[in-house]
Amino acid sequence: MRLLLWTTALVVSTSGGALAAPTFNKDVLPILQQRCQSCHRPGQIAPMSLLTYRDARPWARAIQVAVTSRKMPPWFADPHYGSFRNNAALTQAEIDTVAAWVDGGSDEGDPRDAPPRVRWPLDGWEVQPDVIVQGVPYTVPAHTKNDVIEWMWVVVPNPFKEDTWVTSMEVRPSEPSVTHHLCIRSRPHQSDVEYGTFVWENKVRDRDGSVIAERAGTGSGGRGLTAGTELLGCYVPGHAREDYGAYQAAKLIPAGNDLVFALHYTPNGKELIDVPRVGFTVARTPPSRRYVMLAPSSATDAKHFAIPPNDPNWKSPDVQGTFQRDVELVWMSPHMHLRGKDMTYTLVYPDGRREVVLSVPHYDFNWQLGYATAAPIKIPKGTKIVISAHFDNSSSNRMNPNPNRTVYNGEMSWEEMMLPFFSVVVNGTDRSNIFTTDVADSE
Question: Which of 3.30.70.260, 3.30.70.2740, 3.40.50.2000, 2.60.120.230 is the CATH number of 288-443?
Answer without folding.
Answer: 2.60.120.230
